[in-house]
């Protein structure tokens, strides 16, 4: 099994721009529901024989697709001949530890990515008095490297919402290298690039000179209007963001480390990675365009403006055109 099952979850661009790095670690899975039922058949109406709890980590099972009553293909993970769980509530993850650099981080910090399934968060190195967990593919701005009283290395991560700092063991964070986020197709004229977001198909399509170069599923706003129809542009970006619901929003959420954020409206609607569900192809969000992290990174790198490597936030007057269409008879 191994990497074969994981490859079925990766994006399917026309190019290989978002291909995953090959790693010898076995793929794992994180459970995303507080009680994810284990069904006897790949059918939500079938009997259940048990459940997994939120944040359980298991070996990544075999992925299969079946048609539901609406003739739509739905993903299920097959644990055994008589055990299945819904793929929509499973995050494929790895457990990858990283070398710790000897040199100090550059002044102002740099981008880092969590590379383990989950890691507890500390207020100070080796002093845990907050109840928070960071997750695989979370992005954070790393301010500096510190050592605790035992000489163990920790990274200070900046909370971009409240300005405070938190700490995680340094080996759980990969420090991003410049070549990992260089622009994709920089030789293509900015006005020759465009994105089409199809709300009906829940599909993103990217074009260069009207040639399709990237296509993937996504999850947009649950209610009509949350993801606004019309013509927009990716005018500002940031590699990470803590996203919290507005006071008037009945859906309460607090999501640190949301990766690869490319905004299309001044009200904060954006393409970004999502680590709290895998229900691609179905509406799920409060208006943003949820994507697999590797897909969101591709959009972040391919669209304009390009974000300088040492900047946490970047904006310009223009960006890549984004057409949000209904997909069933016009905009």
Question: How would you describe what is shown here?
Answer:
The protein has 331 residues and is mainly β. It folds into three domains: 3-8 and 16-93, Roll (SH3 type barrels); 110-177, Roll (SH3 type barrels); 191-325, L,D-transpeptidase catalytic domain-like (Beta Barrel). Helices cover 5% and strands 39% of the residues. It has helices at 3-7, 293-302; strands at residues 28-31, 35-39, 48-53, 57-59, 62-67, 73-80, 83-86, 90-93, 110-114, 118-120, 133-135, 139-147, 153-158, 165-169, 173-175, 193-198, 203-208, 211-217, 230-233, 236-244, 254-263, 270-273, 289-291, 314-315, 321-325. The longest helix has 10 residues, at 293-302. The termini are far apart. Residues 1-24 have low confidence and may be disordered.
Mean pLDDT: 90
Number of self-contained structural domains = 3
Separation of termini?
43 Å
What share of the residues does DSSP label as strand, in percent?
A: 35-45%
Poorly predicted residue ranges: 1-24
What's the alpha carbon Rg, rounded to whole Å? 20 Å
Strand order of the largest sheet: 14-13-12-9-15
Sheet having the most strands: 5 strands, antiparallel
Which fold does the CATH topology of the largest domain refer to?
L,D-transpeptidase catalytic domain-like
Q: Which second-level CATH architecture of the largest domain applies? A: Beta Barrel
H and E string: HEEEEEEEEEEEEEEEEEEEEEEEHEE
Strands, total number = 25
Q: What is the share of helical residues? A: under 10%
Query: Going by CATH, what is the homologous superfamily of the largest domain?
Result: L,D-transpeptidase catalytic domain-like
Tally of helical segments? 2
Question: What global shape is seen?
Answer: globular
Structural class: mainly beta
